[in-house]
Write a structure and sequence with these properties.
With 104 residues, the chain is mainly alpha-helical. It has 5 helices and 3 strands; from the N terminus they run H-H-E-H-H-E-E-H. A 3-stranded antiparallel beta sheet has the order 1-3-2. A hairpin with a 2-residue loop joins strand 2 and strand 3.
Length: 104
């Protein structure tokens, strides 16, 4: 018998009752739903493209600050004559790339 199989044999194994198993599954399923459902709802209700006004309403960023983000921080955007448009997925990715975790 090799040492690895011996180690596996010595680990504790949890064998739940059927009711405990169902309780664990329900709890885990609920946690997944609670984590993913708000994202799915937001994604299904959101616009694919944002104007500068939509961007301001959604993120609380003035049009002047948006220009700074575009010019200095490489915020992705598209321009049709004078109209600035943002692709929602790209803006969310841009924000998530800049996320800073504070010290706890």
């Amino acid at each position: 018998m090799n040492p690895q199989s011996y180690k596996v044999m010595n680990e504790k194994v949890f064998v739940p009752t059927r009711s405990k198993y169902e309780e664990i599954l329900e709890s885990e399923f609920e946690a997944v739903i609670n984590r993913l459902f708000p994202k799915l709802i937001r994604k299904s209700n959101r616009k694919d493209w944002l104007t500068t006004k939509n961007f301001q309403e959604l993120f609380g960023v003035s049009s002047r600050l948006q220009k700074y983000y575009r010019d200095e921080l490489d915020l992705p955007y598209y321009q049709e004559s004078k109209k600035i448009l943002y692709k929602t997925d790209e803006v969310e990715n841009w924000y998530s790339e800049r996320k800073v975790n504070g010290n706890k």
